[in-house]
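On clarity, I found the account of how folds are encoded harder to follow than it need be. Since the whole study asks how a given chain folds, the encoding of that fold should be made plain. For illustration, here is how one protein appears when written out as sequence plus structure tokens:

:::
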Amino acid sequence: MRTILILAAVSSCLGLAACQQSQSQATETAPAPKSLSRPAQLYAGQAVILSVDAASVAPGEADGGLTLKASGKTETAGYYELAFLPRINAAPPPDGVYDVDVIGYQPQGPAAQVVTPVEVSGQWTNYPKARLKGVRFNTKTNAVVAMLPTG
């Protein structure tokens, strides 16, 4: 009985060693980790836009908020009330880059099924001032990071 237990322990150790080796090899080729935040609830008719091409973050005027701007594309013509929706974080991101989704209301009726360029701008007034270093603008197909200017 003791021999069986020893054999089981040795085989478990070998299995774990092989698993650990395969994990380290997988880590070398794996893409960058995704954000740890989760999307906030969208209202009926809202959707994340198709893609973002460029984005910027700047300190706001007198209100102390941030001015967010992005240019991107929607899947169809007719998106309206484009905005930024901050994601929910369980804890502050270790790199200081917070996530926002670029969203808008989808057209209510038939719309041309053509990729349409859009410009989005808005204010983020209750952002985490002490920790924020940048903003990741998330869409359906990509994400762009814009860092907060120092100074």
Notes: Residues 81 and 99 are 19 Å apart (CA to CA). Strands lie at 46-48, 51-59, 66-74, 80-86, 97-105, 116-124, 134-138, 143-147. The longest helix spans residues 2-29. The helical segments are 2-29.
